[in-house]
Each structure stands twice: as C-alpha cells, then as structure tokens.
Amino acid sequence: MKRWGALMIVVVVVVMSGLSACADEDGQPVRPAPGGVELEASVHATDGSSPSDVLAGLVDRVTSADGAVVAKSVDGERVRMTLSGMSRDNAAVLVSGAAAETRPVESSRAGTCGPPEESPDPTRSLVACDSDGQRYMLGPQLFGQGVVLKARVGRSMPDQWVVTVSYRHDAARRWLDYTSSHIGESTAVVESGVVVSAAVINGVIIGDTAISGGFTRDEAQRLGLAFTSTGDSIVFSDVVLTGA
Question: Which of 63, 97, 143, 240 is deepest in the core (most CB within 10 A)?
C-alpha cells in the first residue's frame, strides 16, 4: 500500500473498426512507436464539448500522466490517438470513466475484504482494503470526480514516482479548510473500491497536493488518469484498443 509523505502529500479501449493504424491530422496512417497503443472511440459529451474539445482534453491528460501522443485525429464523433509511454490497461482507464475519490479514515486494522465495491455510494461510509492486507472503515466522500484540474505524473527522485494534483478553486479552498481542522487525522485515496494511498494530515495543505510512496510508473500513471476522469459528462463507446 502506498503511503503519502510528510506534507500529507494527499494523496482511467478504444475501437479500431478495421483500421490497422491511426491517422495523423493530415489523414496519413501512422504506425505506433515501439510499445505504443492505438485507441479509437466514439464520443458522446453531455456537457456540450465537441469531439475536437474532447480529443484535446485526452491529449492533455495523457501528456500530464507522463505519456505521449504520437498521432491524433477526429472523424465525426470518432476520435483516434496513437499513444506512446502508456500501457494498454492505462489507455483503457483513460476512457473508462473510473475516478479516484478521497475519503476520511475512521479506523483501520489488519484484515481482508470481499470483492471491491467499484462504484460506492459517495454519501455513505465504505469498507475497503489495500493491497497489503489493511482493512479501512472510511467516511463519506470528501472529493470525487470533477474537482481536479490536472494530475501530473513525474519523479521527485530517480526511483520515486509522484502524482501532483491541482484542485479547482472551490475544491482547493475546501481542502485547505479540511486539512486545517483535521490535523492528526487520516484520509485515503480510493480507486475502483481499493485503497491505493493513505496518510496522516501533518499540517495545512495549501496549493497542489503531491502523492507519493512507492508507486511504480504504471501505478502513478493510472492514479493520475483516475483523478482526471471525465465521469458521466463524456461517454466513450465502441472503444477499440490495439498494441502493447
């Protein structure tokens, strides 16, 4: 289980309809870089975003998560991308709607859980476990989908991957207020019903929040994508994913 650092550093496939490669913006086919992934999907946005807007948002999420977009295009409601530096599983997370949430820790002890509750009710308490056999009783959700502006994945040291989260203004204010009145208490980050990080609040958190504590690059990338999930505001269908 990943634990945050001293600041309480708080602490997401697409359809190829017969195409063998994505096309660039000039319509020319582009083969993925070695280990690359091709992603294609239809876009249905309930927030008024155009497919081009959605594609731009996907590109920003990929690059913020330490991935790269080799090629991209829009054809009607279909968006296509060729990705490098991202696993197929993480490319699936990019268009899945899976979202990370932050909850207060009411208690924890060694123990096991049944199958994770992948879509827990945000207004109710939740029992969830981490990968190290720790069982948590968590309070109602503090933050969920839609409150994060950007989640950047990078290294703080050669062997330590960090996810740096920038909250929207109102959420950043709520987080400042919460951490100032709950010093010494713990919060946990939950993704798909599993606790992926937990830590004690050691002080007031102002500005960005950095999440670290033993992530692999792939794990940090998945968490960053889950923090910036579009949820129900953008639905991807007829998803096709090919490549590594």
Answer: 143
Q: For the chain, what's the residue count?
A: 244
pLDDT band with cut points at 50, 70 and 90 for residue 99: confident
183 pLDDT higher than 50: yes
Give the per-residue pLDDT at 232.
77
Q: What percent of the chain has pLDDT over 70?
A: 85
Q: Which CA distances in Å does 134 have to 1, 120, 128? A: 8, 19, 9
Phi, psi at residue 23, to the nearest 5°? Answer: -110, 155
The pair of structure tokens assigned to 106 is: 């009411």
**SS3 helix, strand, coil % of the chain, rounded to 5?**
20, 40, 40
Q: Which two structure tokens, joined as six digits, stand for 239?
A: 């998803």
Q: Which two tokens stand for residue 43?
A: 């876009």
Contact (Cβ atoms closer than 8 angstroms) between residue 38 and residue 14: yes
pTM of the model: 0.78
Strand order in 209-211's β-sheet? 148-157, 160-167, 209-211
What is the torsion angle, in degrees rounded to the nearest 10, for the CA atoms of residue 3, residue 4, residue 6 and residue 11? -150
**Residue 131, amino acid:** S
Question: CB of 137 within 8 A of CB of 107?
Answer: yes
198 compared with 32, residue with greater pLDDT: 198
